[in-house]
Amino acid sequence: MKTILSCQFKLECNRFLGLVTTREDFEKREFVFGEENVRAYFKEAKMELPAFFDVIDPLPDYEIRPLFALNAQPGPPVAKDVYDLAEGTMLQAIRDLKAQAQAEGKDPASVPSALLLALHGAMVAEEHEDAEGDFLESMRNAVDPDCPIFVTLDLHVNMTKKKAAQATALFPLEFYPHTDFYENALKAARCLIDTLEGRVVPAMAIHELPMLFPTLPTGHESFLPFREEIGALNQEPGILHARFTHGFFAADVREGFGTTLVITDNDLPRAQRLADDLAERIYAKRRSFYRDCFTPDEALREARRLLDSGVHPPIVLADVNDNPGSGSTQDNPELLRAMIDADLPAMFSTLFDPESVERAYETGLGNEVELDLGGKLRPDVTGGPVRAKARVLQYSGGNYRNEGTFLHGVLHRLGKAALVEVGNVKIILCSIRVQPADRAALHLFGLEPETCPVVAVKSAVHYRASYEPVAGRILEVSTKSLGPIDPRALHYEHAPKDAYPLQGLDL
Q1: Are residues 353 and 409 in the same domain?
Q2: pLDDT in tens, the chain (507 residues)
Q3: Claim to verify: residue 218 and residue 115 sit in the same structural domain
């Protein structure tokens, strides 16, 4: 029996938030240890670990042991104790396998047969700027030099040279919104088995572009030709995996670039040539990937115009900058203020404001209360709260599972939550930051966005998977935040100042 060790260890780091992401932050999202617990937790989810199980469990000569699943809402660097726990758990499992093999008279170098890991790729930790690179280096030093290490990664991986050097094969996602977690992981697990069976020999090449890539859907008209080309490349004989990864500029790291990656079957020169050529042509189009957004007031005027012209509701207003999925505060009330002033029937999903949630609970259902909505975490950035008289409509424990193709079936926690109404605007208030990309956040409170003229959502891109099928129109809105879609909006300490589009900016 060949043993494959596995785990999930994820955080997309936004260094501009300050402080650290603690164990408690992981516990609010995913902090699961033990094979049975991990399997039970992901039973309904179309994610990486279930895909690994679906490939490997049916194979009589293989077993996969998922040790843990850790994931936190994007935020500041991971606390040292959490990183050490993840690394230590993996290393101890490797040591245990080797000790067991030796006790049975087998070669300790033969175990584990492989590592199959689900990482994000844009993690920073205390003492580790390239957290996953250091994590992989520890694993590589603990296993036999020929032991395959296969890794699935987010599209926003910061593709460092260390990650590429320590792993046998890296499998980043293809799409943004990320609707291919499961399918991408299936591909990685099947390629791992082919590698162990001697059917393929992965040869991996990367090419870092000297640019910080903006937050951009892969279906955007400026990038769509490249997405189609990459899709076709993946169908060519001898190509095991091809991707363009965007990087995550809010991590503020030295290697946070857009990067091409190509894995061939035992043909490194071809892999490098293809990666270099693709990178050159993407870089040549770099100016086209940046786009303008509406201000909140402009967005409300445009929404009214669209509705008056007969466009069917809802008009979706996406606050693309104050996106908790990019590590922002999720409490900027700029767009909410404009919606209240516009007095259009509207829904707002969702505002992080534990203080207002508590006030709503103290007030009681059906009653009115004066609230200072949002703007509490970084008033120097967001401009402070919006004071408004709100009627308390509903309470909720705040747990739901995504219903659409993005993170389908994955549990989301709003924490203690309340639905309040200010004028014509129904507002979901939450106590845990979580990207409300799926309509399930509204369904939790019995709200149907298709019935409402205007719906606002704090999400940069992932909301499109759920809202595009029902939206009459989508308007991207820019607010002041710590998770902007444009790299030029931040002031960096570590990112190279000569990378596009930072050249010449006062950063």
Answers
A1: yes
A2: 999 999 999 999 999 998 999 999 999 999 999 999 999 999 989 999 999 999 999 999 999 999 999 999 999 999 999 999 999 999 999 999 999 999 999 999 999 999 999 999 999 999 999 999 999 999 999 999 999 999 999 999 999 999 999 999 999 999 999 999 999 999 999 999 999 999 999 999 999 999 999 999 999 999 999 999 999 999 999 999 999 999 999 999 999 999 999 999 999 999 999 999 999 999 999 999 999 999 999 999 999 999 999 999 999 999 999 999 999 999 999 999 999 999 999 999 999 999 999 999 999 999 999 999 999 999 999 999 999 999 999 999 989 999 999 999 999 999 999 999 999 999 999 999 999 999 999 999 999 999 999 999 999 999 999 999 999 999 999 999 999 999 999 999 999 999 999 986 654
A3: yes
Interatomic CA distance for residues 129 and 75, integer angstroms: 14
Q: Are 237 and 311 found together in one domain?
A: no
pTM for the full model? 0.95
Is 494 a domain residue?
no
Cβ atoms 439, 283 nearer than 8 A? no
Look at the chain and report how many structural domains it folds into.
2
261 and 351 co-located in one domain: no
Clarify whether residues 349 and 447 are in a common domain.
yes
Do 358 and 232 share a structural domain?
Answer: no
Mark whether 284 and 400 lie in a shared domain. Answer: no
- Do residues 400 and 444 make contact, with C-beta atoms less than 8 angstroms apart? yes
Strand order through the sheet with 149-153: 30-33, 62-71, 2-10, 114-119, 149-153, 169-172
In angstroms, the CA 154 to CA 172 distance is: 5
Residue 497 lies in a domain: no
Q: Domain check: are 277 and 203 in the same one?
A: yes
Which H or E run includes 122? none
